[in-house]
Here is the input.
Amino acid sequence: MYDICIIGGGPAGMTAALYSARAGRSTVILEEKTFGGQMGETSMIENMPGSPNTEGWELAMKFSQQVMELPVEAIYEKAEKIESLTDHVKVTTSGGQEIEARRLILAIGVKRRRLGVPGEDLLTGKGISFCAVCDGAFFRGKDVAVVGGGNTALEDALYLSGICSRVYLVVRKDYFRGQEALQQRVREKENIEVCFETRITAVHGAGKVSSVTMESPTGSREVELAGVFVAIGLSPDTSLYGQVVDTTPEGYISTDERMQTSDPLIYAAGDIRSKEIRQIVTALGDGAIAAEMAGRSL
Here is the structure.
């Protein structure tokens, strides 16, 4: 039996593994794909203290190398089932393994909702971004699109309007869902063009985004631009933990400041946790706290 089992190999999970192993606790980390999470899909990370202007995959590789130099066991399988027992937790993997640990840290992250259109998979990280603050500077002086009608999309459009030449704000409905104050600020920006009742149906480019196809009730048009920022929400997958720990109505895991969930054996860290800001630096802090608090409870 392990002291700590961590599900998820993104920034929060890797930090939890680092702190747990350095504290001398037997540690196992489950990662379905590759270490890094969404960090590995980011073209360039500029706001990481101490590591400015670093490719996302490069930072993910550095993180994983540091963790794997420690006595951490890595299992590349998907966690399929969690059982909270009297004094430990049992995790069943997609390969049929049953992993038992005295404490569990959930760091599985969330999935950003995607457009689901041709060209998106090929050009994600090559002009398609899910974080305006992270990647906006790469599009300085260029035309971009922001997709979405909520607060995040409005905030992204406003932020990018101070960097980019023109911002197309593509809204599926005929109205905004964001705050009225943000709506007013958007309307006052001369370089934000709001496109209501419009969808992006394809993204084009050879190696990088060059244009998109937009469809509206008036017809279809191709618009030349350099970047597409998708802000249509996050999607937590509650199938693994929804019956085990308390969640918010949106599906995020509720924790206290110690990262402890409603189950005293289970902690949560990173984007899957209910919180205001989801960035790499906040995930790192969550992971460190979760590992330290879980370890102290043993």
Remarks:
- The radius of gyration is 21 Å.
